[in-house]
Design brief:
single chain, about 160 residues, alpha+beta, Thiol Ester Dehydrase, Chain A, six-stranded antiparallel sheet, 4 helices, 6 strands
C-alpha cells in the first residue's frame, strides 16, 4: 500500500490579492512564491514555469497516483495541464481586476504518458484576444526527448472588472 499526503494554502486570500494585479503579475507572483499557488497544483503535482504576455508554461512529473485502470497516466492530467497552460496564456493579458472562464477545451492525446516518460512540459500560447473572447493553443512534450504527447485548443470568456 502506498500513500500520498497533499497540503495547500487557503486559496481565497491569494485570489483576492490577485485581483489588484495584472494577470501577468499575478501568475509571476505565484511562480516565484510571493503568493501561494492554487490547490489544483498540489493535487495534480503541477509546477509553474514561465509566464510572459500570451504564453504560460507548467510542468509535471507523472506519478503512479496519476494512473488509470489500464496502467497509464489518466488523460485528466494532460487535460488539466493543457487547460491551465492555455487559459493562463489568456490570463497573462488581463488588466487588474479582470477575469475569465474557460468556455471550451479540445484535447488530442498523441502518445501515452507514464512514470517512465519523466517530466512533461505544457505550454500555452495565445492565438486571439478580443473584447469578450480569447483563444489559445497548447502542447505537452516530454522534457527528455521533446516528443509531443498531447495538444489542444481553448476558448475563454473575458470579463471586465466591475466598477467599485
Amino acid at each position: 500500500m502506498k500513500s500520498r499526503t497533499i497540503t495547500w494554502e487557503e486559496p481565497g486570500e491569494a485570489a483576492a490579492e490577485g485581483l489588484a494585479m495584472t494577470g501577468l503579475e499575478y501568475l509571476r507572483a505565484m511562480a516565484d512564491g510571493r503568493l501561494p499557488g492554487p490547490p489544483i497544483g498540489a493535487t495534480m503535482g503541477m509546477l509553474p514555469g514561465e509566464f510572459e504576455t500570451g504564453r504560460a508554461v507548467f510542468f509535471a512529473d507523472p506519478g503512479e497516483y496519476h494512473y488509470n485502470p489500464i496502467g497509464t497516466v489518466h488523460g485528466g492530467l494532460a487535460a488539466t495541464l493543457l487547460d491551465s497552460a492555455m487559459s493562463c496564456a489568456v490570463h497573462t493579458t488581463l488588466a487588474a481586476g479582470d477575469h475569465y472562464t474557460t468556455l471550451e477545451i479540445k484535447v488530442n492525446f498523441v502518445r501515452p504518458i507514464g512514470v517512465e516518460t519523466g517530466r512533461v512540459r505544457a505550454e500555452g500560447r495565445l492565438l486571439h484576444r478580443g473584447g469578450l473572447v480569447a483563444t489559445a493553443e497548447g502542447s505537452i512534450v516530454a522534457e527528455r526527448d521533446g516528443q509531443l504527447l498531447a495538444h489542444g485548443t481553448t476558448t475563454c470568456l473575458l470579463m471586465r472588472a466591475r466598477p467599485a
